[in-house]
Amino acid sequence: MLSNYLIGLREGLEATLVVVILVAYLVKSDRRHLLPRIWAGVAAAVLVSLAFGAALTFGPRGLTFEAQEAIGGTLSIVAVGFVTWMIFWMARSARGLSAELKGAVDRAADASRYSMVVVAMLAVGREGLETALFIWAATQAAATENGSTTAPLTGALLGLLTAVALGYLMYKGTLKLNLSKFFMWTGAFLILVAGGVLSYGIHDLQEAGILPGLHAVAFDVSGTIRPTSFIGTLLKGTFNFSPVTTWFEAIAWVAYVVPVMTIFLLKVTGGGKNAAPSAPSTSLKVAA
Amino acid sequence: MNRRLSLLLAGPVIAGTTLVGCTSNSPSGAGNGELTVTSTATECQVSANSAPSGTVVFKVKNTGNEVTEFYLLASDGLRIVGEIENITPQLTRDLVVQVPPGKYYTSCKPGMVGNGVQAAFTVTDSGKKLEATGDDKALITTATGLYASYVKDQTDKLLSGTESFVKAYKAGDFDKARALYAPTRIYWERIETVAESFGDLDPSMDAREADLEPGQKWTGWHKIEKDLWPPKTGYTALTAAERNSVADQLLKDTRTLHSRTRTQTYTVDGMGNGSKGLLDEVATGKVTGEEETWSHTDLWDFQGNVDGAKVAFENLRPILTKKDPALETSVATKFTALQKVLDKHRKGDGFKLYTELSKTEIKELSDAVNALSEPLSKVTAAVLK
């Protein structure tokens, strides 16, 4: 029961974190009218994942292992691009919240509304198929006669609910922060999350044999931090931390987090630059 | 980032990855392709240590008290052929894999740590071909369809060219016939391997005097060639009746070829072998100057063979990209190199005569052909992988 619960929690956290921050941002910057788009993106991702997962589980055809890994891996890497764009977009808008600039920011938000939907979709959908396949397998187990067991399904759903509840608490917590702190913390946090998502995507592609180096391990702390433990689950669910990390994953993580974090901190703390929202900035180049 | 860019980025990724691979959910043998695996806290019990090749289903049940994972590993014990994760206690999850015959390892990882509990596993040859995945099928259909269209198109041009050629020749307009000879034969040379697959047509249409079997009646292109470019001594020109007969026969054969290619279908291995076959034609006939003994227009034929080989290869390329990108690059590079050498000998609308080539130039052509032959011979095996 507990292990099912932890899987639900892990997958749930991976999906909700980015969405929570995006929602908090929109609420904080008085753009509640954009929220429906985020929910639409989330709903689309959930429905597509569940439908796709059901078709593969109960239908006549499955998906090859390589294809499953390639989907998860590719979507993860694309998600990193979008999340990075979102971090800098938020940071850029943060500086232009004085009244006269608000209009310009709103126009930017309108122009980016589809990107926001895509961010929400990818954040939830990249792991969606894997989770859906697990949920359906658990459902099958609950529905069959022999060894019928509802524990996996109940556990996983409870875990998902917990993830949503934690997300809500985080949302409430971030709302209490003042604006500049909010951007600083959520942005830095999201960069760590995105670095983890990048590693995760690379690991999937390594498992599928699309990228090399699956067995060149940088470190293995699975003896200390067991992946089945509560702490292992939380680390995996938030930062995509994997107790056994390959060199390729580790290098990619560092190569992403270090420069992006540096640029981000320089921007948020002013960096001596005058960054009007309308001025084209390096952040857009990063996202493109 | 605007809407177009977002969709541009997200659309193809999602669409592309969903097309990567499908597999059938039902095992190959009646019930014998389905195995049960019981993963306990310390053990990994597989119901059999072998299965016939094709679709194999492992139903993995976790009877331990921690989450487990199940892997099917390749013979090196490292490469993952298939895996299924997140098998929680009491849960059964299925791993469906398409496997060719060979040695494998099964492995359970209770608690998702360590190297897991491995055991050797053999896949015997069931004689069944692995079904092409939906994606491969689509690529194959496209490739063979494109090639069929190409062959039809070239045969159309060959037929209308042959009609003009035959008309001029029968009318005794030899200058016109000589001008039409090589440009028309290019269409034939482009699809030569297809024409050769209809065994009866090739000897009738394209036999060279030197290759005639004892008692074989000489007909076709090269008989007319000799009559248009007669040797200085010891040759009697054909009579009008003989000319008509050989010309009518050639046109009739071309019409037969034309009608047969309307409904002809092709396979990827046929295309791969055909591409290589065309290049062998170059190596054995055109580079040596034996094909066009009298007219010396071998380089036109050379270009035709290379064109046909290249089209077959280009049509196979999307499949090759997936299966062996290194080979694809190698073949493409060598095609370009060969064409460069051949282009040196262009003259007006056509080419230099074979007799105008120096020994060094012939050697250079021959080397470029051989360099391409080597990787091209591997294409068929690669697309069937």
UniProtKB/TrEMBL annotation, chain A:
It holds the Pfam family FTR1. The keyword Kinase does not apply. It is a multi-pass membrane protein. One of its GO terms (molecular function) is ferrous iron transmembrane transporter activity. GO terms for cellular component: high-affinity iron permease complex. It is found in: Membrane. The chain crosses the membrane at residues 6-26, 38-58, 70-91, 112-138, 150-170, 182-202, 244-266. Its main location: membrane. It comes from the Bacteria. Keywords: Membrane, Transmembrane, Transmembrane helix. Belongs to the oxidase-dependent Fe transporter (OFeT) (TC 9.A.10.1) family. This is High-affinity iron transporter.
UniProtKB/TrEMBL annotation, chain B:
InterPro entries: EfeM/EfeO_iron_uptake, Imelysin-like, Imelysin-like_EfeO/Algp7, Imelysin_sf, Iron_uptake_EfeM/EfeO. The keyword Chloroplast does not apply. Keywords: Signal. Its main location: other. PROSITE patterns: PROKAR_LIPOPROTEIN. It is found in: Cell envelope. Residues 147-378 form the Imelysin-like domain. It comes from the Bacteria. Residues 1-15 form the signal peptide. Gene3D superfamilies: M75 peptidase, HXXE motif. The keyword Signal applies. It holds the Pfam family Peptidase_M75. GO terms for cellular component: cell envelope. Belongs to the EfeM/EfeO family. This is Iron uptake system component EfeO. It comes from Calidifontibacter indicus. The lineage of its organism: Bacteria, Bacillati, Actinomycetota, Actinomycetes, Micrococcales.
